[in-house]
Specification:
mainly alpha; two-stranded antiparallel ribbon
Length: about 240
């Protein structure tokens, strides 16, 4: 759930690679026309190939046997290494490349840089071949999608991420698909536990300043939501820390 600025996108020119196997200029022009349409509005695109078209097997072969494993592999690796964390969840380690529009439905974008999203294994597995409507290169999330609930029981504190009902259906589906409520709850609890020893050395005033600063400078949506919830329950959290 992280928007990738344009300057951080590796813009691989796939034309030379496409030309090694696609000799029909009309097919090549159709692919390029689709790519231009993708840049304008990915949500209105319809597939341009049928499953049995010979170009489908050619494109799949180019991706599997040339782009991923041969002399074009450096471009694959540059895309994969262009960012350090998965943009779908904003914390997972980059492990593979996801095709935003599934390659079995949209083979024309199998080599298009805007459709190649570096991702962690969990997000790529959860997404599978499903089509989603929030693109990490095109759609910036400006709303707070979570309300964080804090529970203290048996001397343990737990941060639970609940979906904000005011967000769009597309964003709700995105959160559900990537299991972000559960995964962010787990991450938030790890972050808090990693810092609790440090917080024990703070008086209430300094603790307030520390949490306020972290809230203001956090760039990750789920981390910002964590510190917002602590600010709203500052006295309770402070007392919990100093009771340990």
């Amino acid at each position: 759930m992280h928007f990738i600025d344009d300057e951080n996108i590796y813009k691989f020119d796939n034309t030379p690679l496409l030309k090694t196997k696609i000799k029909d200029d009309s097919i090549l022009n159709m692919i390029k026309s689709q790519e231009n349409l993708y840049l304008k509005d990915v949500n209105i695109i319809s597939p341009c190939f049928n499953e049995n078209d010979k170009e489908v097997s050619i494109l799949k072969d180019l991706y599997k046997n040339e782009f991923v494993s041969k002399k074009w592999e450096r471009h694959y690796n540059k895309i994969k290494n262009s960012i350090s964390e998965c943009p779908y969840c904003d914390f997972g380690e980059i492990a593979e490349i996801d095709h935003f529009l599934p390659k079995y439905l949209y083979p024309e974008f199998i080599l298009f840089y805007y459709n190649l999203i570096p991702s962690c294994h969990n997000c790529n597995k959860n997404k599978g071949v499903k089509r989603i409507h929030i693109h990490p290169y095109k759609d910036k999330i400006d709303i707070e999608p979570f309300d964080v609930e804090i529970k203290i029981s048996n001397s343990n504190i737990v941060f639970l991420y609940n979906v904000n009902n005011e967000i769009s259906d597309n964003l709700k589906e995105y959160i559900r698909l990537f299991d972000l409520s559960k995964r962010y709850s787990r991450q938030a609890n790890l972050i808090f536990r990693d810092n609790i020893c440090c917080y024990k050395g703070f008086d209430y005033k300094y603790f307030n300043v520390e949490i306020q600063t972290k809230y203001e400078y956090s760039t990750k949506i789920y981390v910002k939501a964590l510190y917002k919830s602590i600010l709203y329950n500052l006295k309770m959290i402070y007392n919990y820390i100093h009771s340990k």
